[in-house]
Each structure stands twice: as structure tokens, then as C-alpha cells.
From TrEMBL, chain A:
It is found in: Cell membrane. Keywords: Cell membrane, Membrane, Transmembrane, Transmembrane helix. This is ABC transporter permease. The chain crosses the membrane at residues 25-45, 65-88, 100-117, 123-147, 159-178, 206-224, 254-276, 306-323, 329-347. GO terms for cellular component: plasma membrane. GO terms for molecular function: transmembrane transporter activity. CDD domains: TM_PBP1_transp_TpRbsC_like. It is a multi-pass membrane protein. It comes from the Bacteria. PANTHER family: ABC TRANSPORTER, PERMEASE PROTEIN, GUANOSINE ABC TRANSPORTER PERMEASE PROTEIN NUPP.
Automatic annotation (TrEMBL), chain C:
GO terms for molecular function: ATP binding; ATP hydrolysis activity. This is ATP-binding cassette domain-containing protein. Gene3D superfamilies: P-loop containing nucleotide triphosphate hydrolases. SMART domains: AAA (SM00382). InterPro entries: AAA+_ATPase (IPR003593), ABC_carbohydrate_import_ATPase (IPR050107), ABC_transporter-like_ATP-bd (IPR003439), P-loop_NTPase (IPR027417). Residues 13-247, 267-509 form the ABC transporter domain. It holds the Pfam family ABC_tran. Keywords: ATP-binding, Nucleotide-binding. The keyword Plastid does not apply.
């Protein structure tokens, strides 16, 4: 019954880098490519040559600085909402509320930007706007967290339902209290002051938001893998009973990881406003929360791998535009490709051994 | 007659959710939670609508919609049961995939018009004052849907099939020891659930709105899942919950028609908030009634 | 009670050379076995000797790697269980395969009927008939969760008897859930089954049962048959023991008498009401005092509030009414953390479910509730923790595996070792320990029992939950009994005996 433990096994990060998960590389590559093959068949069926399309998709994303910037731009919110799902997931919670938390974060940051931060210098205004976004996302997540901790409601269901409520809340504001008086009755907010816009890389639309997302991913990873707090979170996520018997305060942890996740998603909302759109619309960040959740799934909730999966999803999203232009297929068909990718990942995933 | 209007509307707009919740109930009784119900409803709504457009026969639409819903739920069943994938994440992916597929395939149907199902008043019964108009003036699919609820109850609690289904959701190893393959039961339950959700989608597009709109279910599938919990896995209570949701929807339409000065966005939220409130009220007793293996999914055992 | 057969009857089932391996472990090797109609064949062996594996092969849960089974003179494939059942083999499991949310009638319908419909009336009549015939009282409309373990076992037996064509019945440690008085009734029922020419396989580790009822006996040790006999005589006891134990020499557990002394109380529960998971009262009017240097044993049929009581004493469950004090500090609303700070340590009854964290190493488990975690910045100093573990006597005594091994890959016995050494390392003031010897071989059991006694000697108050009355009597200074929502006692172990305690477990206060 002796088993080789291996010298490397004794690391506190054990819980995060489970041993034999990685299957042989060839099989893995095949599994990664399979959805693209299936989607290719789908394209052939609609008289589109998949090979030329895939090439033009790659060209448009990696071909020039602008395209690459667009990918990073798309990846930014996915990384953040991915973290918003991954952090609670490490404590055993399934937070699907990134969608609503992002929306409310965007709402809060726009509200503050329009009404209070208008005349502020960037150095003060942008951080405050960021805080407002985090506050909004955190508050929205706190609703789910309270229902979980005090009411015993399952966080998956409540966070999903609250996504719809959040969307209608944003709708309410952009049609009412936050409507731009000069918009000729279009439902969107006034534009935020140009001093509050995030600095942009020349020649692209890329702003510093991506750096923020990378830093937050690194911080999340460090906390989870290298601190006692992270150890506690992982114990709770792996076996709640054991954590209870070790005297951990489970409900308190549940509450705070959900709120922290909400704050991350709220920051994503702020970045959308301050980095790209400049004003709040009902359509701001729609589906980003779900895509982030899927990015987290693809990365097995590993904060650093989410950077990669967020990037891949960003690439597919940008490619969606190419798809529309190059083949006349609607942009929504990219959701089919994304679904396929995820099916293969879920299907090949680790089993509960 | 505003109250009568709202109650009639409750049944009109709530039946799709009701059907989906009955389907989800079957699936959850067997121990599989399927958030992909939303996707099944969308596929059903589009499939049913398309076939009705092509054939002019709404009953063929019902069949097609049911099958469409079932097919997409088969992906869920396969990933969860054969590959051991996380139930909640897989369900979400199905939901997402359903949105993508239907918005892609549904492009051509957005402006189509159909006759579909229309209310058929039941003679005599529909003449009863107040009640008659609310209960007995609906389309045939709705009547069938309502009749389905007691049938499901009978099967669940008065037949051996029901015992097998419930046992699967409680402790599948017991079934294995009794020589029944629990996996097969789960497959069938998920497929049946997908079929019903698909038919629910058909009710939405072919009987209620008579149109196809991208992403038209608007979270009804998610609500159906929530209602099953609210209903503590009992068919009649799921029906009640669904019609409560329907009433909130109808209230919103009525208020808009009456031109009352309430923001429509608040009214849009009401059904979702109502669902949350309902969940919160009944939560305390729930734990003991939840099928055991489902409890594991919720407690995180299925969320790895 | 024994039947005399002048001519040996033909066998119902004959197994030859059955072998089963799990990875590198050979659980059964070359087992030969016969079951004859109207005879009780006892399979005797220690925990871990391979009895369960053998039975699971005969019931079709496992597929044998080698060997054959003959029934009616023809080779028979028993895997999966549906095939075994079709051939007339029934099994009464030790861990009952029942669903709490279902009624007795539904549970039976699931197992013995087929098809879509449910003929309630007919089934009910059949249930009542069987239960009358063999003295197996069960209420068809009761829910399984309402039944105690004895009733559940009767339900399982009715299920097997009602299944069409049953002729071989396997009982897996049937008396482990019964109190002494129930055991007698059970043996009577076995006798009726024998008279009705059922072939019976009785798995047990209790030699006196074998002597009381068996017609044939086989002894398993380390996966092999080491002794088989077609005759069982009342004087065979020593022969069977040495066959079970082999060459092993065991250290006897010794306990010096501490009897009669009044020691200082450390934990007191006064007039406590303890509620179950659904808010229903499980125990009422509980008075319990734990004293320094004393082992208090808790006897009772399991499911009588053991889990709930233990959880209350560790802050995992809120006390309904009453007062709980530790060293005169009121602990009614204290959190688990505060209980730990007050010196309480808890070893739960299901360590695999409640203590093992998937993917975490043994060392990480030790940090949770054993070794004080050495701090290094925001992190834990893992190298120092490892050293502390290596230096621990308790970990060495229990032969704990390498600290870097993943705990979810350990066997049940090794998990138990890990959990126990973790509790012992803490040298707690109060130790609440549930079923410490479950799943362990006799040698390790004795080591643990000795360590508990040493711990008490050093001043720890121990509350010991066990289903083994011998263990309770061997270790405890006082015994309390959980029965009928009451905590009875304490009784001084020197002033009572097994049969009186068994009486109280069964009948409560009236006994």
C-alpha cells in the first residue's frame, strides 16, 4: 500500500494544483480543437469555408496592434467577472451573479461620476469612481450573501434571479433618473467627464483596465494560495463539515467572499464605463458576467489561469465580429462556438475521484 | 374586472413556467438540477414556432418544441451523468448555448405570423360568472398542461414508477441494490424534464404571444427552477408558484394598459422579487424535503 | 436448537477459488464455501479479514477476479446484484440500504415488485403475513426515518423474504445493531428460517453467536479461509479465536481502578433539551457531568441522540434549553472556536465525511485541529509544522503515514488514525470521541484504547460514544445510557453489568 508521495507534494498550494488532472498533452489538444471542428462543420453547412474564416479570425485578433488591443479590452471584464465567480467557488459557493454585480457596479460608478466626481482631477476622481463601482457590486452581492447566510437560500438561484432584477434596475435608471437630458429621449446616461476616462494606449482603444485586472488576479491568487485566510477559504470549500469542526466561522466567510466577488465584478462595470463606453446604457456589459463565470469554469477557478481563459473568450468574442463581417453570419453564432468549447471542457473535466 | 383580467392573464403567461417547473420537478426528483431549463424553453419556443409556421399545425409544433427541448437537455444529461460534469455549470452553459442557437436559427422567424393556439371556451363552464372566464377560457395546450399536474402527482406518489424516480433522487445506491439502473432513470427524467420545458416554450410562443422574439423566455426557465424549490418538490405547489409568477406578469401588463404612473421597470422586477420572497418564506422547512442527492449538489459536492 | 441431518443435504450454492483484488491489495484469495438448505453457515473473522468482500461477491456487488460459483449444479454468474437476486440470493446489509423519506411499504415495493403499477392492498397483506410468520413486526405505513435500527433490520429481512424465489439469505453482522435482548429474538427467527429450509450465511465477528446457532463455520483471516468445519461444538471457542487471530500477540488493555473517587467536574450540562435537524426534541431533561481524569461512556442504540449530544458539546449545534458550563463558564451560545479555546476536542463519528478535505495533505489536516499552526507572515510555516508532526509521540504511536500524503487517498482505518492522533496531540482538557475503534483491526484498537486511558490519567475528561458494550465497560469509569429521549445514569461500571445496561438501552427508565 506504499505510495510515492514525491518531494514536491508538500506545498500549501496542494489544494489548488491537484496532481494528475492534466491528461496527456495530445488528448488535451484534441479536446481543445474538437469544438472548432464541430463548429467548422456547422459553418460548412451554412456555406462558409471554416478554414479561411478561422484564418481571418486569427488575423483580425493577432494581425495588428489594434486587433490585439481589442482582445485585451474584451478580456478585461471577463477576467474580473471570472474572479468574481472563482473566489466564492474556492469557498464552495456558486456565484452566477457577476452579471448583475457588474451592472450595478456600472450604475454606481456612473451615478457618482455624473453627479459628484464631475469636476475632480483624474488622480482623485478615477479611484473614487472605482470605489463606487466596487461598492455597487459589493452591495448587490451582499443581497445574495445575506439571503444565503441568514435565509439559507441557495446562492446560485438567488444570484441568477437577481441578475434579472439588476438589469431592470439599470433600465429604470437610464430611462429615468440618470437619463441624459440631451439624448433626444434615447435611454442612456450623460457622458462622464473626460478627466474620468481611463488612460488609453496610443493607436488602440486599450486602456489601463487590463493592468488592473491582472493585478487583481495576482492578488486573488496570492490570498488564496499563500495566506492563512486563503487556507481557511479552501478548507471551507473542500469540506464544510471539517471546517466547522476546526472552528472556522463559515457563514462569515461565505458572506465576505461573495461580497469580495461582487466588488471585483463591480470594478469590471466601472472599467466598462470609464474605459470604453463613457456612459451607461441598458446594454452595458450584458452577458459579461456569464462569460466570466464560464472563464472561471474553464480555468477550474484558478485565478491565474482565468487570465488565460478570459483572454481566449475575449479572442472568440472579437472573432465574432469578424464572423459577421466575413461570412454574413450573425454575431450570435459565436455563442454557439463558445457553448461548444465549454461543453468539451465540461465533458473532459476532472471527475470527482 | 381588473382582478379577473389579472387572474386570466396569470394562467396565460404562467403556463409556460408551470410546464417547465413540472419538468424540472421530475428531473430534480431524480436528483439532477437542470438550469438549462431556460435553454430548453428557448429551443422549444423556437422549434414549436418554426414547425407551426411551416405546417400550420400547432400540435406538430408542440411535438417539435418538446423534442427540441429534450434534445438540448440530452446534452445536459450526457455531460452530467456520463462525464461527471458540475450540474450547475453545465446547466448554465446549456442556457447560454440555447440562447446562441435560437438567436442564430431564429433570425428568419422574427417577423413571421401564426394562428397557433387560441382560447377555446369550454361550454357551460366558461359561463360561470367570474370563475368561468378565468379558468375555462383558454387554449387547448393550457388545459392539457393543467390536467398534467394531477397526473404527475399520481405517478410520483401512487405508482411504483414514482417510487423508483424518487428513490433515485434520494439514494441511488439503494436502487442499484434493487437491480435498477439509477443512471438510466436519471437520463429519462432529465429528458422528460427537457421535453416539458420545451412544450412550455411552445406555449409561450405559439399559444401566448404568437410570435418569436430573440431570448423571449426572459429568465422564465430560471424562475421555473426556483419554483421547484419553493414548491418543495410537489407538483401542485409548483403550479401555484408558476401562476403566482404569471399573476405578477399579468399585473404588469394591466398596469401598463391602465396607464398608471408606475415605472414599468419596477413591474418587470416584481415576478423575480416575488419568486425570491416566496423562496425565503418557505426555506425553513425545505431542507428536510429536499431529495438527498440534490442537497449534495447544492452543498457544493456537485460544484467542484 | 440444532437440527440433526443424518444425510448431508445437497448444497444450494457452492463457491470455489473465489479471489478478489483491489489494486495491489488481495481482499479474498481462493475461497471455497458451501451453503446448504436448512443450515446456518457462519463466516467468522475480524474487521478487515475480508468478510464483506466475500459477501459482496456472492451478492453480485463485486465481480470475482477468479473462481466459480455453482448453483443447482451449474456455473452461475452473480454479478450484478440483479442476477444474484434472480438466482434467489438475498442480502441483509449492515448499513441498511433504505431511504429515510420513504414508507416501509414503498421501500418494499421498490425492492420486490416490478413494473409501473403499485398494488398497495395486496403488498400490504403479504408484508403482514411474512412479518407474522417470522415475528418481524413492522408497520407498513411508517416512514423509514421513524424506525429504529432494529426495526430497519426487520424491514430489510421482510424485503429479502418477499423477493420472489429467495433461498439463500446473507446476513452481514446482523447483531451489531441489536441490544442483547433483541439478539435472542433474532436467533429465534434464524431458527424459523432454517426450519423453512432457507440456506443462511451469517457473517459475524462474535464467537458466542456462532456457537449458539451455526451448523457450519468458516474462519477468514487476511483474505483466506484458515479454518472450516461442518460441526460446531460449544467447546470450540478457543479454537475459533486462535483461528481468527493467528499468531498475533495482543497487548492487553489495562486500566487501574479509579473507582469510587469523586473527581472535579469540568463540564456540566443541566436540564438540557437537544433538538434534531428538523427542530424536533431528541433528548430532554439531560443532566450530564464530565469530570477530570474520568472516562464517561455513552451506551445506546445508535440514532438515539448520540450525534446531537456530541455536537452540542462542541458548539456545532445550539442547546435548546438548559445550561451548559465548562469550568463554570456558560457556553450556551459559544461558537465551536470558543469550545476549542475552552479545551474541548471532538472526534466525529464519520471522519471520512466530516474530517477529510479532498486534495489536502495529512499535514494540512493536522494544522486544522491538532498541531498549533506556526505562523510565518500571512502564511503558515509548513516546514516547522512538519517537524512538529514528526516529533509527536502520538503520531508515532499510531504509525501515522507520511505527512505529505493526501488524506483522501488513505484507507478508512488510516483516516481514523489520522483523526485520532490529531485529537491526542492536542492533549485536550475534554475529549469527545465517537466510535474510536470503528474500522480498525484489533491491534490498533487496543493501542487507541490504551492511549485514551493514558490521556484520562493525565487529567483529560473523556466522553466516549461506542456501540461496543465490551469496549465501554473496559474503558469507562461511569456509563450513561441514551434511550427514549432520555439520558439515564450515570452508572458506575463496577456496580452494573452488560445485561442491565442492555435492558436500559432497550426499555429506557422502566427497566
Amino acid at each position: 500500500m506504499k505510495q510515492q508521495a514525491g518531494a514536491a507534494a508538500l506545498s500549501p498550494a496542494n489544494g489548488m494544483t491537484r496532481g494528475n488532472r492534466w491528461k496527456p498533452a495530445a488528448l488535451k489538444t484534441a479536446l481543445m480543437l474538437a469544438p472548432f471542428v464541430v463548429f467548422g462543420l456547422f459553418l460548412l453547412f451554412h456555406n462558409v469555408n471554416p478554414v479561411t474564416l478561422y484564418i481571418s479570425m486569427i488575423q483580425s485578433t493577432f494581425g495588428d496592434l489594434y486587433g490585439f488591443g481589442e482582445v485585451l479590452l474584451k478580456a478585461t471584464p471577463f477576467i474580473l467577472t471570472g474572479l468574481a465567480a472563482a473566489l466564492p467557488a474556492k469557498a464552495g459557493l456558486v456565484n452566477v451573479g457577476g452579471e448583475g454585480q457588474l451592472a450595478i457596479g456600472a450604475l454606481f460608478s456612473t451615478w457618482f461620476a455624473v453627479f459628484y466626481l464631475d469636476a475632480m482631477p483624474a488622480a482623485l476622481g478615477i479611484p473614487l469612481m472605482l470605489l463606487a463601482g466596487a461598492l455597487g457590486g459589493g452591495l448587490w452581492a451582499a443581497v445574495t450573501a445575506l439571503l444565503k447566510v441568514k435565509g439559507g437560500l441557495n446562492e446560485t438561484i438567488t444570484s441568477l434571479l437577481l441578475n434579472y432584477v439588476a438589469a431592470f434596475t439599470v433600465g429604470f435608471f437610464v430611462h429615468g433618473l440618470l437619463k441624459d437630458p440631451n439624448s433626444f429621449n434615447w435611454p442612456f446616461s450623460p457622458e462622464i467627464a473626460s478627466s474620468l476616462r481611463l488612460p488609453v494606449v496610443n493607436g488602440t482603444r486599450l486602456h489601463v483596465g487590463i493592468l488592473l485586472a491582472l493585478v487583481l488576479a495576482a492578488v486573488t491568487w496570492y490570498v488564496l494560495a499563500r495566506t492563512r485566510l486563503g487556507f481557511r477559504i479552501r478548507v471551507i470549500g473542500s469540506n464544510r463539515f471539517a471546517a466547522e469542526r476546526a472552528g472556522f466561522r463559515i457563514n462569515r466567510t461565505y458572506f465576505w467572499v461573495l461580497v469580495a466577488g461582487g466588488m471585483l465584478a463591480g470594478i469590471a462595470g466601472m472599467i466598462e464605463i470609464a474605459g470604453i463606453e463613457g456612459r451607461l446604457r441598458a446594454s452595458t456589459g450584458v452577458n459579461y458576467g456569464y462569460l466570466g463565470f464560464l472563464a472561471a469554469m474553464m480555468a477550474w477557478n484558478h485565478p491565474l489561469r482565468i487570465v488565460l481563459t478570459g483572454f481566449i473568450l475575449g479572442m472568440i468574442s472579437v472573432a465574432g465580429n469578424t464572423l459577421e463581417i466575413a461570412s454574413g453570419l450573425p454575431a450570435s453564432s459565436v455563442h454557439i462556438l463558445m457553448g461548444l468549447v465549454l461543453f468539451f471542457i465540461l465533458g473532459s473535466g476532472r471527475r470527482s475521484s | 374586472m381588473m382582478i379577473a383580467d389579472i387572474l386570466t392573464g396569470a394562467i396565460r403567461s404562467g403556463t409556460s413556467v408551470m410546464l417547465a417547473s413540472q419538468g424540472e420537478l421530475i428531473s430534480e426528483r431524480a436528483g439532477v438540477i437542470n438550469l438549462g431549463t431556460e435553454g430548453s424553453m428557448l429551443c422549444g419556443a423556437l422549434g414549436g414556432f418554426a414547425v407551426t409556421v411551416w405546417t400550420g399545425n400547432p400540435w406538430l409544433g408542440v411535438l417539435a418544441g418538446g423534442i427540441a427541448g429534450m434534445l438540448i437537455s440530452a446534452i445536459h444529461a450526457f455531460l452530467v451523468l456520463a462525464c461527471g460534469a458540475n450540474q450547475l455549470a453545465t446547466g448554465l452553459t446549456i442556457m447560454f448555448f440555447g440562447m446562441g442557437v435560437t438567436s442564430f436559427l431564429g433570425r428568419g422567424f422574427v417577423s413571421e405570423q401564426i394562428v397557433g393556439f387560441n382560447p377555446v371556451p369550454i361550454p357551460f363552464l366558461s359561463d360561470i360568472p367570474f370563475i368561468g372566464g378565468i379558468l375555462f377560457n383558454h387554449d387547448p395546450l393550457t388545459y392539457l398542461a393543467i390536467l398534467f399536474v394531477p397526473c404527475l402527482w399520481y405517478v410520483l406518489f401512487r405508482t411504483r414508477l414514482g417510487i423508483v424516480l424518487r428513490a433515485t433522487g434520494e439514494r441511488q445506491e439503494v436502487l442499484f441494490a434493487s437491480g435498477i439502473n439509477p443512471k438510466l432513470v436519471r437520463y429519462l427524467a432529465v429528458l422528460a424534464g427537457g421535453f416539458l420545458a420545451g412544450v412550455g416554450g411552445v406555449q409561450l410562443s405559439v399559444a401566448f404571444t404568437h410570435s418569436w422574439v430573440e431570448n423571449m423566455t426572459q429568465g422564465r426557465g430560471v424562475v421555473a427552477v426556483a419554483l421547484v424549490i419553493f414548491a418543495s418538490w410537489m407538483p401542485a405547489r409548483a403550479m401555484l408558484g408558476a401562476y403566482l409568477f404569471g399573476a405578477a406578469q399579468a399585473l404588469q401588463l394591466t398596469v401598463q394598459q391602465q396607464g398608471l404612473p408606475i415605472s414599468p421597470f419596477f413591474l418587470f422586477m416584481v415576478p423575480y422579487l416575488l419568486t425570491l420572497a416566496a423562496l425565503l418564506i418557505v426555506e425553513r422547512k425545505q431542507r428536510s424535503l429536499m431529495p438527498e442527492s440534490l442537497g449534495k449538489v447544492f452543498a457544493g459536492d456537485g460544484a467542484r | 436448537m440444532k437440527t440433526d441431518h443424518p444425510v448431508k443435504p445437497a448444497y444450494l450454492l457452492r463457491a470455489a477459488g473465489l479471489t478478489k483484488r483491489f489494486g495491489s491489495l488481495t481482499a479474498n484469495e481462493g475461497i471455497d464455501l458451501e451453503v446448504r438448505p436448512g443450515q446456518i453457515h457462519a463466516i467468522l473473522g475480524e474487521n478487515g479479514a475480508g468478510k464483506s468482500t466475500l459477501m459482496k461477491m456472492l451478492y453480485g456487488v463485486y465481480e470475482p477476479d477468479e473462481g466459480t460459483v455453482l448453483m443447482d449444479g451449474e456455473p452461475a454468474v452473480l454479478y450484478p446484484p440483479s442476477r444474484a437476486r434472480a438466482k434467489g440470493i438475498g442480502m441483509v446489509f449492515q448499513d441498511f440500504r433504505l431511504i429515510p423519506a420513504m414508507t416501509v411499504l414503498e421501500s418494499i415495493a421498490l425492492a420486490v415488485e416490478s413494473g409501473f403499477a403499485l398494488r398497495r392492498k395486496q403488498l400490504r397483506a403479504r408484508i403482514l403475513e411474512v412479518s407474522r410468520k417470522y415475528g418481524l413486526a413492522v408497520d407498513p405505513d411508517a416512514y423509514v426515518w421513524q424506525l429504529d435500527l432494529g426495526q430497519r433490520q426487520r424491514l430489510e429481512i421482510v424485503k429479502v423474504l418477499l423477493a420472489p424465489g429467495t433461498r439463500v439469505i446473507i446476513f452481514d453482522e446482523p447483531t451489531s445493531v441489536l441490544v442483547p435482548q433483541e439478539v435472542e429474538k433474532f436467533l429465534d427467527m434464524l431458527d424459523k428460517l432454517r426450519k423453512d429450509r432457507y440456506g443462511i450465511l451469517l457473517i459475524t465477528h462474535k464467537i458466542n453467536e456462532v456457537l449458539a446457532c451455526a451448523d457450519q463455520v468458516s474462519v477468514l483471516r487476511a483474505g483466506r479461509m484458515v479454518y472450516q468445519s461442518d460441526q460446531v461444538d460449544s467447546g470450540d471457542g478457543d479454537k475459533l479465536i486462535s483461528a481468527m487471530m493467528g499468531e498475533k500477540t495482543l497487548n492487553p488493555v489495562t486500566k487501574q481502578g479509579m473507582h469510587g473517587e469523586e473527581r472535579e467536574p469540568i463540564l456540566q450540562l443541566k436540564d438540557g433539551t437537544i433538538r434534531g435537524d428538523h427542530g424536533e426534541p431528541v433528548l430532554e431533561g439531560v443532566h450530564l457531568t464530565l469530570r477530570k481524569s474520568e472516562i464517561t461512556g455513552v451506551a445506546g442504540i445508535s440514532g438515539n441522540g448520540q450525534r446531537e449530544l456530541a455536537e452540542v458539546l462542541f458548539g456545532l449545534r445550539k442547546l435548546g434549553t438548559g445550561e451548559l458550563t465548562i469550568a463554570s463558564a456558560v457556553m450556551n451560545d459559544a461558537s465551536t472556536k470558543e469550545f476549542m479555546e475552552a479545551g474541548v476536542t471532538f472526534v466525529s463519528e464519520d471522519p471520512i465525511k466530516e474530517s477529510v478535505i479532498p486534495g489536502f495533505s495529512i499535514l494540512e489536516h493536522m494544522i486544522l485541529d491538532g498541531i498549533e499552526a506556526p505562523v510565518k507572515g500571512a502564511n503558515i510555516d509548513w516546514a516547522r509544522a512538519q517537524k512538529l508532526l514528526e516529533d509527536s509521540e502520538e503520531a508515532r504511536a499510531l504509525a501515522l503515514a507520511d505527512g505529505s500524503r493526501r488524506a483522501d487517498q488513505l484507507s478508512g482505518g488510516n483516516v481514523q488514525r489520522m483523526v485520532l492522533s490529531r485529537a491526542l496531540i492536542r492533549k485536550p482538557d475534554i475529549l469527545i470521541i465517537s466510535y474510536p475503534s470503528r474500522g480498525l483491526d484489533i491491534g490498533t484498537t487496543r493501542t487507541i484504547q490504551q492511549q485514551l486511558i493514558e490521556l484520562a490519567k493525565q487529567g483529560t475528561a473523556v466522553l466516549l460514544f461506542s456501540e461496543d458494550l465490551d469496549e465501554l465497560f473496559k474503558l469507562s469509569d461511569r456509563l450513561v445510557v441514551l434511550s427514549g429521549k432520555k439520558l439515564l445514569g450515570p452508572y458506575d461500571t463496577h456496580e452494573t453489568d452488560v445485561s442491565r445496561i442492555g435492558e436500559r438501552m432497550l426499555k429506557g427508565e422502566s427497566a
